[in-house]
Specification:
Strand 44 and strand 45 form a beta hairpin. The N and C termini lie far apart (94 Å). 6% of the residues lie in helices and 43% in strands. It has three helices and 48 strands.
């Protein structure tokens, strides 16, 4: 009887070993599919139609390729990892990487240095994230959701070097931040057109995009993303770029929507180059404590760097519009290359409105901005929403004049709204189709001052422009009405 029991146990362990084992490809330069691996190691991958199961850790050697080029689902057992030293390509219409048991996540993916990774049209869920140690990484049109700490505990996509491409993805409701890099990494990735929502469900003091230093001569580009916070989380910010240990900050943050986070965008440390342009930054007040955060943009450094250029953004209902701290420097609009044109509305706390708080000893140029959206403002009105040397003599001045939202040109009448001119921005001249028989063209400065007035002869459809770079208003009129358009001169 004892011998029989021992034999049964031996058979059980042999059976288990055959049905759950790790596999490393033989490093012979071949391309492997999951079917190939199932044939070579049935204890690692099993197949049922388009449903595959991974029962052991899988390692792709440096000279080998794992190719997924058909629609399938790979369910992965608890705690297992896919490690790539070679090439990993996912290129089909619908591939899903998930857990066999959603309550028992797999460890995730680890992409070693010098591996080549290209992932398209995949869903990656209920795992431990993507640890990206390689410079050659792209992920496009994927859904990455409900992942937890595993192969990475810093961000669901944790980057280490180079210029990774993260485009057109939905990254949502993961335990950790969506995208990150270490403070001492040099990552200048292209993060474009992603929907990033509700990440850092662990509610740690980190933003949804959490980046360290960049490459010295290449920009980190964060472009056209939608970054939405989960308002039940009071510690999670929008975007942070931090230089704590030395190195470069070269970054462009453009055309994003950042809303419902603890704060919008922060840059910590001196910058070599930073451009924050044409973003909509709204309702970043989920923590609700103005002593701890809530800025649309916050800049902080103990060492002066180049000014962060901030232009064309919209700030609404944050606890602070912009805060500039210690030795940080910012250019919000000048008479040279930065047109300003930032818009501020209802950024405040404690009963006060703070479009900008200059908590530095330095003068800030902040010309050509609309400081109080939706009203015709006076200089006194604008002064009320700016905290600077007027309020505390130890602080630097904010030079806010001339400002927008202080003139009443911009009136469109008599169904002329279909009229326009080109090009805009303007270099030498403007062209227009004079279907409304306009008789006069007037150009105004941003304070409503008339700069030039010219009668248009019949048949004229071009007008030379010889003005300094900046923002102007052009009024076209006839006896029946007029229309005013913005004009930017380069």
């Amino acid at each position: 009887m004892k011998k029989t029991t021992l034999s049964i146990l031996i058979l059980f362990f042999v059976f288990a070993a055959l049905h759950a084992q790790d596999y490393t490809t033989p490093n012979t330069g071949l391309t492997w599919t999951l079917d190939d691996i199932a044939t070579a190691s049935p204890g690692t991958v099993t197949v049922s139609g388009t449903d595959y199961s991974l029962l052991g850790n899988l390692i792709i050697s440096e000279n080998d390729t794992l190719l997924v080029d058909s629609d399938l689902t790979l369910a992965i057992d608890a705690g297992l990892r896919i490690t790539i030293f070679g090439t990993f390509t996912v290129d089909s219409d619908a591939v899903t990487f998930t857990a066999i048991d959603e309550t028992a996540p797999y460890d995730g993916f680890r992409f070693e240095e010098f591996s080549v990774i290209d992932i398209k049209n995949a869903t990656i869920e209920f795992g431990g994230g993507l640890r990206v140690l390689t410079e050659t990484f792209s992920i496009d049109n994927c859904t990455i959701t409900n992942n937890v700490s595993g192969t990475t505990s810093s961000a669901v996509i944790q980057l280490s070097r180079g210029m990774p491409q993260i485009t057109n993805n939905t990254i949502s409701f993961n335990e950790n931040p969506a995208i990150g890099s270490a403070a001492n990494s040099q990552v200048s990735g292209y993060i474009f057109n992603n929907i990033i929502e509700g990440n850092n469900q662990g509610n740690s003091n980190r933003p949804q995009i959490n980046m360290g230093t960049t490459m010295a001569n290449e920009n980190l580009e964060i472009i056209q993303n939608t970054i939405i916070g989960d308002r039940s989380l009071d510690m999670v910010g929008g975007i942070a770029i931090a230089n704590f240990v030395g190195g470069s900050i070269n970054v462009s943050i453009e055309d994003n929507t950042v809303k419902d986070n603890r704060y919008g965008i922060t840059i910590i440390g001196p910058s070599d180059y930073a451009l924050i342009r044409n973003n909509v930054i709204e309702d970043n007040d989920s923590q609700g404590d103005p002593q701890l955060g809530g800025s649309g943009i916050s800049l902080s450094t103990s060492t002066m760097g180049n000014p962060v250029v901030v232009t064309g953004n919209e700030f609404r209902r944050n606890l602070w519009g912009i805060t500039v701290i210690t030795e940080a420097t910012i250019n919000l609009g000048d008479d040279d290359e930065n047109l300003g044109e930032n818009i501020f509305s209802e950024n405040g706390n404690g009963g006060g409105i703070y479009a900008i708080y200059n908590n530095t000893p330095h003068t800030i140029l902040a010309k050509h901005n609309c400081w109080i959206e939706g009203q015709e403002s006076t200089a006194e009105d604008v002064e009320d929403v700016i905290f600077h040397s007027v309020d505390d003599p130890s602080l630097g001045e904010v030079v806010f004049e001339p400002f927008l939202c202080g003139i009443t040109i911009g009136v469109e009448e008599n169904n002329l709204t279909d009229f326009g001119f080109y090009p805009n921005p303007v270099k030498n001249e403007i062209n227009f189709n004079n279907i409304h028989s306009f008789e006069k063209v007037e150009i105004y400065g941003i304070q409503g001052n008339l700069i030039s007035s010219e009668v248009i002869s019949e048949g004229v459809q071009a007008l030379p422009v010889t003005l300094p770079s900046g923002l102007y208003f052009v009024n076209f009129s006839n006896n029946g009405g007029s229309i005013t358009k913005k004009m930017i001169v380069e």
